[in-house]
Design goal:
Structural class: alpha/beta
Number of domains: 2
Strand order of the largest sheet: 1-4-3-2-5-8
Number of strands: 16
Helix content: 25-40%
Shape: elongated
CATH architecture of the largest domain: 3-Layer(aba) Sandwich
Low-confidence stretches: none
Strand content: 25-35%
Number of helices: 11
Order of helices and strands: EHEHEHHEHHEEEHEEEHHEHEEEEEH
CATH topology of the largest domain: Rossmann fold
Distance between the termini: 39 Å
Length: 318
């Protein structure tokens, strides 16, 4: 196995990995439960063939190339997605920019195109809604037909349901922007995570009795602005529940500021050991209320106290 598990092209994978190779193909944005059904199929098939699993995915949504300006915001950046895919058991990731060379391949030539790039290719795994080739004319059924003709094993994973409907990245984006974080977490199969470095704040929280750690967060697909119950994780393995406001702080800030999380840790009043530049991860567990502008700091302080009490009530259950 190559020392680096992330490749930038199919040809690079083909040159470095002789095979047998099982290729799982998809955008895999969010690496949700439906995606993992595809990946699990690929991993099991690779074990049966004594081969390795490669996940072919893209740093940007294909719609950005096919329908510029209409591409959806992404749930994961390329680095986070690569890590999540590798954690699912794939041996390597091909993070290939989506371009005309791929979009113009006639559907009937798609397996041959992949086989040319990856001589050791023995199988392909996709989801049931997979489309490919020029004008996205090829679908999963057609892939099974032409793939078998070329000696490739084709695995098609059925959709995974949540609430009676198939899980999709689109559903997760919609739920995320609507504050339905519990639904987001069920569809993902894990808690939505925010990760970054703590930055200095204006210390207002400390002045009103609720010190916070401040974490900037501006992904393409943003959570709803509001107050969340979170679980904070630190590099030393410590975890602490907290109450966090995500947004632009309209009570105390002018327009145009970047959104960030202001995290008040439950049961911890001394923040002297927490410094700007420290790494902090937040698992979003429950949405408590939307962000709002208060008429006074006293009104804000009273609401934060209620938010803290509600978070403390819910924390033992989540």
């Amino acid at each position: 196995m190559n020392a680096s598990p992330v490749f930038s092209s199919l040809a690079e994978l083909g040159k470095r990995e002789p095979g047998p190779v099982l290729l799982a193909i998809g955008m895999f944005d969010g690496v949700h439960r439906g995606h993992r059904a595809v990946l699990d199929l690929a991993v099991n098939e690779a074990k049966a063939r004594n081969g390795l699993v490669a996940a072919l995915t893209f740093p940007e949504h294909p719609a950005k190339s096919l329908r510029p300006g209409k591409e959806p915001p992404l749930l994961m950046d390329p680095s986070t997605k690569s890590e999540a895919l590798l954690a699912c058991g794939v041996d390597c990731v091909v993070m290939k920019p989506f371009d005309e060379s791929l979009s113009e391949v006639p559907p009937g030539e798609f397996p041959s195109y992949l086989k040319q790039k990856i001589p050791g290719l023995v199988g392909i795994c996709v989801g049931e809604n997979f489309h490919f080739g020029k004008d996205r004319e090829g679908d999963a059924d057609f892939l099974k037909e032409i793939g078998s003709e070329r000696g490739l094993g084709i695995c098609v994973a059925e959709g995974v349901l949540e609430g009676g409907q198939p899980i999709s990245s689109s559903r997760i984006r919609e739920a995320l922007s609507g504050g339905e974080i519990e639904s987001v977490n069920r569809m993902l199969g894990f808690s939505y995570r925010v990760d970054g470095l703590v930055v200095s704040g204006n210390r207002l929280g400390r002045e009103i009795g609720f010190p916070t750690l401040n974490l900037p967060w501006s992904p393409e697909a943003r959570p709803a602005f509001g107050v969340y119950l979170v679980k904070a994780s630190f590099p030393d393995g410590e975890t602490v529940h907290g109450v966090a406001n995500y947004g632009v702080r309209p009570t105390v800030e002018d327009d145009g500021v970047e959104p960030l999380f202001e995290v008040h840790l439950l049961g911890e009043e001394d923040y002297s050991a927490r410094q700007p530049g420290d790494r902090l991860s937040l698992d979003l567990l429950s949405f408590l209320r939307p962000e709002k502008k208060f008429e006074s700091l006293d009104a804000l302080k009273s609401q934060i106290a209620r938010d803290k009490a509600e978070a403390a009530r819910l924390a033992p259950c989540l």
